[in-house]
Design brief:
Blueprint lengths: L1 H12 L3 H26 L6 E3 L2 H9 L6 E3 L24 H6 L4 E5 L5 H9 L4 E4 L7 H11 L3 H25 L16 E7 L4 E2 L5 H8 L3 E2 L13 H7 L3 E5 L5 H11 L4 H4 L3 E4 L10 H12 L1
Parallel strand pairs: 1-2, 1-3, 3-4, 5-7, 5-8, 8-9
Antiparallel strand pairs: 5-6
Helix pairs in contact: 6-7
């Protein structure tokens, strides 16, 4: 045994100084990374959480962290308890002063709505931040898992993420079982079901395009989003393009005002499209607007009209 140790030492001792430095640096880096990991996992969970987006607020409540939330945006209105929390302004223009006064242990942000500059300002003030990066339906479960780990509620996050994953998979299976073996080609040369348009706002006309949970939901339900080839997630659309694309179904998201009244003028101008002529215009909730637990409810709601 002693000879083995001498041999090992001899081999190490015979190395060049540069090689020794490389090996020792690698070992030091390995130990440091392991200590950092242990610190991240076993750090004290934050007690005072501030949420800068309605979607993350809903996720936090769904993970049972409502009692730790000390502040939210003006648009965080679900669940009902969120309305009672102190407000810090909008998603794109939160008040830095309001955030500081609430003394959060961590500020939860998203890449889909919160300005990067605000995150940098918080970090410069030594205020800890966590950025929720999920933007697509498929990214939601892992996004919840990552957030749960950062907030010290790994098991709760896993339960919530698994529920969402299972629900999405059921829609996939349901779609596969109901789809014909050789679906017909649409005018655009794509295979799919009904041609769909989802209107976010009628005037100016804003619709749901690519890279959105709404677009993902339409595809999941074997529909074809006529705005899926737009260059931005929420493009401005024209009356002429809607008439040209001739959607079979039109969804209009409900807002805080009477959307039937607001959209009546638009529907008159596109009265020639199949969706309007056949009475396939449906007003549905805002569940799909926010990438959180309620997207499943939104997909269920949409599925009633597409399947």
């Amino acid at each position: 045994m002693r000879n083995d140790k001498k041999e090992e030492f001899f081999i190490f001792g015979s190395l060049t100084s540069e090689r020794k430095w490389y090996i020792l640096s690698y070992l030091l880096l390995l130990v440091t990374s392991q200590l950092s990991l242990l610190t991240a996992v076993y750090a004290e969970p934050p007690d005072r959480i501030l949420s800068l987006a309605p979607s993350t607020t809903e996720i936090l409540f769904a993970m049972g962290l409502g009692d730790r939330i000390v502040g939210v945006t003006n648009f965080c209105d679900y669940p009902g308890e969120a309305k009672k929390k102190p407000k810090i302004g909008g998603m794109s223009n939160p008040s830095l002063e309001a955030v500081i006064l609430l003394k959060p242990d961590i500020v939860i942000m998203t890449t889909d709505g919160n300005p990067k500059e605000f995150e940098e300002r918080l970090r410069s003030l030594k205020i800890k931040t966590y950025v929720f990066k999920a933007r697509r339906l498929s990214e939601l479960p892992q996004g919840i898992r990552d957030m749960g780990l950062a907030l010290g509620v790994k098991e709760r996050a896993e339960t919530l993420a698994k529920e969402i994953e299972d629900a999405i998979n059921k829609f996939k299976v349901r779609g596969q079982e109901s789809a014909p073996p050789h679906p017909p080609l649409s005018k655009g040369g794509q295979r799919g079901g009904k041609k769909v348009l989802f209107i976010i706002w009628p005037e100016p006309l804003i619709v749901a395009g690519p890279g959105t949970a709404i677009d993902d939901a339409i595809t999941l339900l074997d529909g074809e989003n006529i705005a899926s080839k737009a260059k931005v997630p929420y493009p401005k659309y024209s009356i002429e393009e809607i008439i040209h694309q001739a959607p079979d179904v039109i969804f209009i998201g409900k807002g805080h005002i009477d959307m039937k009244k607001v959209s009546s003028g638009l529907l008159k101008r596109i009265a020639v499209v199949p969706a309007v002529k056949n009475g396939a215009v449906f007003y549905i909730s805002d569940s799909l607007y926010r990438l959180g637990p309620r997207v499943i409810e939104g997909i269920e709601e949409m599925a009633k009209y597409l399947q």
